[in-house]
Amino acid sequence: MDGLPARRPDPRVERSRTIIRAAALEELAQSGYGAFTIESVAARAHVGKSTIYRLWRDKLDLIADAFESAHEQAVPDVTTGTTAQRITMLVQHVAEVAADSLFSRCIPALIEGAGHDPRLRDFHYRYSARRRQSLTELIAGGIRSGEFTASCEPDLAAQAMLGAIFYGRLMSGEPFAPSQAPQLVAALLRPRDASSPEVS
Amino acid sequence: MDGLPARRPDPRVERSRTIIRAAALEELAQSGYGAFTIESVAARAHVGKSTIYRLWRDKLDLIADAFESAHEQAVPDVTTGTTAQRITMLVQHVAEVAADSLFSRCIPALIEGAGHDPRLRDFHYRYSARRRQSLTELIAGGIRSGEFTASCEPDLAAQAMLGAIFYGRLMSGEPFAPSQAPQLVAALLRPRDASSPEVS
DNA sequence: CCGCAGCGATACGCGTGCGTATCAGAGATG
DNA sequence: CATCTCTGATACGCACGCGTATCGCTGCGG
Fold first, then answer.
1. Are residues A53 and A130 in the same domain?
2. Measured between CA atoms, how close is A49 to chain B, in angstroms?
């Protein structure tokens, strides 16, 4: 039915998409959601405004797409070591990303945007939930296997770990130091054998 | 030196200030920082735009002042019970405020605004730091007095408790349930005598 | 090497919010 | 009751950003 000649895709299109998405994220990081403008993105990307409107319907569409593309910084699956070690590494990884990455600098914008656009809200909640769930499952697994005893529900422990990280990021000038991760994890998981470590 | 007749202050002025500050906070909660407009506030407060500009220099001045006035919801000084109980009550209080209060609904706006205006940033950081510090001191006191053993540095424990609360508020649809507060506190503080409570 | 798709630049109409100015009337003062 | 401050309404000029349209040019595909 399609008598179309099936022309090869022009490489310029994908190149534009990539450049513009990156510029959009930088703009979100710097200006936030409210002050985000298509014109700033165009200037930052050294691109004509029309190119942006050719590739995305509107401002919101670009923002949502930029976030979704940034999502690809997937959490690396740590599969070596004891469960406690794997948990520590996961927490440490999240702390590092939160401390310094383009995506993390966009989180304030994402929070603000989530209050305005359902599509952003869905993305934000889903993304956060996924990160939290994988940590929860790791903790639950460690408890099931008897490696340690949790001092509270796995999900609550996960929330405390992630919360500590983001509290530093969002509510104070000093981000959470990744080096504190082991201490934080140890505080919430009690090895079955060893006695509790004392802190003077 | 002042030959001024010292006229009594017109009550309408303070009344306007109060009404407009409240409307500004509601506007921040609903629209966020970026979409905040003086004209919306005026409409919401059933007040002329000129009245607002007569009492505040500009948009930022109003926002900063509205936040500072909301700050007055001071944390009640809990002074009864064991230190652990006082900590639990404090955490529970923060959780309740975070779950549902006008001020807490403004936090996304505050975070966004902190990225743009130094005055808002100072307020935000100072306010958060104060809350965190009072919790830290409470924990440190309980450790010093030998009531319990912390499983980590007091400040880190405080960060985990507050973080868990705000993670629920900002990063997922479900706010932190205040009923989880005792479990969270217990997980991070170990009574010196009793054996650790097990969670199946 | 031809033809066309994608490109940057530019200009446009529109809406919106800023911060200012003006003005008549309501309400507090004394 | 006379006075004068504060108030809400309204209009203004300005700047900015949206989303659209147009136009030559560039560089890719065939």
1. no
2. 22
The parts of chain A modelled with pLDDT lower than 50 are 2-3, 194-200
- The CA distance from A54 to A183, in Å, is 50
pLDDT digits (tens, 9 = 90+) for A58-70: 999 999 999 999 8
Which structural domain, as residue segments, surrounds residue B177?
83-191
Q: Is the CB of A54 under 7 A from strand D?
A: no
Query: What is the maximal distance between C-alpha atoms in chain B?
Result: 78
Q: How far apart (Å, rounded) are the C-alpha atoms in residues B179 and A114?
A: 26
Arithmetic mean of pLDDT over chain B: 90
Q: Which pLDDT score, from 0 to 100, does residue B78 have? A: 73
Closest nucleotide over all strands to B47 (CA to C1'): D8
**pLDDT for the residue A5:** 58
Please give the tally of structural domains in chain A.
2
Task: Assess whether pLDDT exceeds 70 at residue B73.
Answer: no
Q: What is the DSSP string of A166-184?
A: HHHHHHSSSPPPGGGHHHH
CATH number of the domain residue A44 falls in: 1.10.10.60
B25 in Cβ contact with B101 (< 8 Å): no
**Looking at residue B182, which CATH number applies to its domain?**
1.10.357.10
Mean pLDDT of B166-175: 93
Looking at the structure, tell me whether residues B66 and B102 fall in a common domain: no
Both B106 and B23 in one domain: the answer is no
B54 touches strand D (CB under 7 A): yes
Q: Quick check: is B5 in a domain? A: no
Mean pLDDT of B97-125: 95
Query: Are residues B181 and B115 part of one domain?
Result: yes
Q: Which segments of chain B are extended strands (E)?
A: 148-150, 189-191
- How high is the pLDDT of residue B72? 67
Interface probe for A, chosen from B97, B127, B159 (most Cβ of A below 10 Å), is: B159
Q: Are residues A180 and A98 in the same domain?
A: yes
- Nucleotide with C1' nearest the A10 CA: D28
Cα(B49)–Cα(B43) distance, integer angstroms: 8
